[in-house]
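From the shared-data thread, chain only:
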Amino acid sequence: MTHPYLSDLPEPELKREILDAKLQIEQVLGHAIEHFSCPGGRYDRRTLEMARRAGFRTVANSRFHTNCAETSRYELGRVAVLRDMPMEEFADTCHGRGLWKKQLQDRTRHSVRRLLGNRAYDRARGALLGETRR
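Structure, as tokens:
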């Protein structure tokens, strides 16, 4: 609906953002929506349970990892490909080279985000990047 960090929401708002949004989109499109992506990659156990109850078959987050047969379909990782990514880095990513570095960066960001909380993390990140948001 509005792309808030789902892990920050109370239950009624979480339902609105996942289940109610799914129903509205399905009504507009005329077919089922089976895959969900967590805004900002932020989620918790409640988010995954709400997605299951809503009928989503998969949930993607922003955790940096490759997926395999053993990966939970409700915790699919993603590998970010940004528009300014050099072709050599893109090729390395596609072939799985150097992923450990990106995984280490992701784990560090995730740890800092858990320590600070979403709002404080966003403010600190924005300050470091010279942004003004949220």
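The first strand starts at residue 35 and ends at 37.
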